[in-house]
Amino acid sequence: MCNSQRSPISFAILTILLALSMACTRHPSDDKMAKDIQDKAAEDPDTKESPIKVEAKAGKVTLTGKVRTPEAREKLEQIAHDEPGNVGVDDQTTVDPDAIASGMSEAPPPAPKPKPQPIVVPAGTTLTVTTSQALSSKNSQAGQTFLATLAQPISVAGRPALPRGATVSGTVVSAKAKGKIKGEGELSLALTSISIEHHTYDIQTSVMSSTVKGKGKRTAATTGGGAAGGALIGGIAGGGKGAGIGALIGAGAGFIGGAATGNKQVEIPAESALSFTLSESLTLPPPAE
Fold first, then answer.
1. Alpha-carbon distances, residue 91 vs 7, 42, 81, 83, 278 (angstroms)
2. Single pTM value for the model
3. pLDDT tens across 80-116, in order?
């Protein structure tokens, strides 16, 4: 009789123990399921950059957090559904719009623009300048520096190169007054540099040489590079500022416009227009954009 009373009690105890055992084994299984899904999501190239959280309870998987793209969200659901032992998936993730915008901004950068090329003013280019001071065979000295401004702008292949008004420096190559060489007056000039936007560039030009041998007789010649060279085109020998504008340039020689003075001196008043020819090319940096 005692045995018959103990049997129901024993059965109830065994049932409780079995339920507890099943409960104990279920929780590690849920934890393992969640960890497996989390690990697979971290390894998959479509979902590895999406910060999500995975939880499992009684076999049901819950996904929370933000994903980078709708495609990543679908892939994450698929990983959870494929996990053995799951009984359902509750996807509470949202797509992060900032992540989408960031992904769009990561498009390949546009191809770089071609680098601007230097501007080369070729040899043979004529530079017409206006003198800032008077020069003469009597008062000027060899080696003396004189200043002028560029009277006409220079362009190369349609690109501005030398602006009008740029400061130009020159040198008196030689100056011989009356009486030193059989009463002749001689004056030779050349340009040496040009300044553009606070930068100064050395230049080489043909030499303009003018000699007055006697009243009414004058000659002019140029040297340097064999090109048609300097022509003095205004305001010579008392002709006045800007007088006689115009020049006749022949092959290898320039001709004076104006008159010789009776004292056989070569006079170039201030604001006279002179033309020189580049004997070597001038390379300028590309313009700033």
1. 48, 17, 11, 14, 79
2. 0.51
3. 888 888 888 888 888 877 755 455 455 677 888 888 8
Q: Report residue 288 as tokens.
A: 């700033």
- Taking residues 270-284, report their average pLDDT: 95
- Measured CA to CA, the distance from residue 55 to residue 44 in angstroms comes to 18
The DSSP symbol for 278 reads: B
Q: Could you tell me the two tokens for 138?
A: 């009597």
Q: Domain spans of the chain?
A: 2-105, 119-284
- Is residue 37 within 8 A of residue 82, CB to CB? The reply is no
Concatenate the DSSP letters of all residues of 162-219 into one string: E-TT-EEEEEEEEEEEEEEETTEEEEEEEEEEEEETTEEEE--BPEEEEEEEETTEEE
The rounded distance, in Å, linking the Cα atoms of 90 and 170 is 87
Q: Please give the backbone phi and psi of residue 97, each rounded to the nearest 5 degrees, phi first.
A: -65, -30
- If you classify domain 2-105 with CATH, what class do you get? alpha beta
CATH tag, 119-284: 2.40.128.260
119-284 matches 2-105 in CATH topology:
no
A 10 A CB-CB count for 15 gives 10
